């Protein structure tokens, strides 16, 4: 039986906050957003230390439940309801490369919190400059990209896959807050081909207004939707096929993306 196209963990959603937030007067919602932002920062500080310790063990697997609790705490504080469609496409699939659009930091939190299995991310090397958090991301098997050492990053990503992780790549290369899907880079398709694992298109909608780039406080009580598409096999594909595979993935994400959630 296919899972329902809604939040899969009924105890973790925030139906009351989300359903009533639209009726909140502007000042109250702004206050909620400011308080939720401050508490989210405190939550990050609290969870960072046990995450840093756990990241040393079992190739980073020990950090996964802590990171999931951290992401969930922030999503609850901000009253974000996550609706998921297509989880059946991940059943029995094993490690894969998830290719998604990117609008907000809440995209990352939602994937950590709600996507089954263990997912790690591709991040730019600048993330290492963040105190504690950069260390945690690196040690917990996320893939840090150095554009001057692309081959090393690919080898690192393949190693992460062999440790049993799926990898999520935001293929646009940047966060965009204009509620549109932008052109995909071909690095994710190349990784999937080299690692010989499936690609999974994943459209994330509704997060562009939660905390756009440059915003100081979150806009709380919003709803977002993740649509997971059918996996695309990479067996038999070669490096020269990555451009065509990238376009196919981009088209599927565009088709699943919605401007209204």
What keywords describe this structure?
261 residues, seven-stranded mixed beta sheet, 8 helices, disordered N terminus, Glycerol-3-phosphate (1)-acyltransferase, alpha/beta
CATH class category: Alpha Beta
* Biggest sheet statistics: 7 strands, mixed
The poorly predicted ranges are 1-20
Derived from helix and strand composition plus strand pairing, the structural class reads alpha/beta
- Quick check: average pLDDT? 87
Radius of gyration: 18 Å
Could you give the order of the helices and strands? HHHEEHEHEHEHEEH
Helix fraction by DSSP (H/I, runs of at least 4): 25-40%
CATH H-level superfamily title: Glycerol-3-phosphate (1)-acyltransferase
CATH architecture: 3-Layer(aba) Sandwich
Sheet-strand content, in percent, reads 5-15%
Counting DSSP H or I runs of 4 or more residues, the number of helices is 8
Return the domain count. 1
Shape by Cα distribution: globular
Distance between the termini: 25 Å
Strand order of the largest sheet: 1-7-6-2-5-3-4
- CATH fold-level assignment: Glycerol-3-phosphate (1)-acyltransferase
The number of E-state strands comes to: 7
């Amino acid at each position: 039986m296919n899972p329902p196209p809604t939040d899969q963990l009924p105890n973790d959603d925030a139906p009351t906050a989300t359903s009533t937030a639209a009726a909140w007067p502007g000042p109250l919602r702004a206050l909620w957003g400011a308080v939720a932002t401050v508490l989210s920062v405190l939550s990050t500080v609290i969870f960072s230390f046990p995450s840093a310790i756990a990241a040393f063990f079992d190739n980073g697997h020990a950090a996964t439940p802590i990171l999931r609790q951290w992401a969930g705490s922030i999503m609850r504080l901000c009253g974000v309801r996550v609706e998921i469609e297509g989880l059946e496409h991940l059943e029995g699939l094993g490690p894969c490369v998830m290719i998604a659009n990117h609008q907000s930091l809440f995209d990352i939190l939602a994937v950590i919190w709600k996507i089954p299995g263990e997912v790690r991310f591709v991040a730019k090397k600048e993330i290492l400059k963040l105190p504690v958090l950069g260390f945690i991301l690196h040690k917990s098997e996320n893939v840090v990209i150095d554009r001057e050492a692309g081959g090393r990053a690919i080898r690192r990503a393949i190693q992460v896959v062999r440790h049993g992780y799926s990898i999520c790549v935001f293929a646009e290369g940047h966060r965009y807050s204009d509620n549109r899907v932008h052109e995909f880079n071909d690095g994710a398709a190349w990784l999937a081909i080299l690692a010989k694992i499936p690609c999974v298109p994943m459209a994330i909608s509704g997060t562009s207004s939660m905390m756009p780039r440059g915003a100081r406080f979150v806009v709380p009580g919003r709803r977002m939707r993740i649509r997971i598409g059918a996996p695309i096999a990479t067996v038999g594909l070669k490096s020269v096929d990555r451009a065509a595979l990238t376009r196919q993935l981009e088209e599927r994400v565009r088709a699943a993306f919605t401007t209204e959630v």
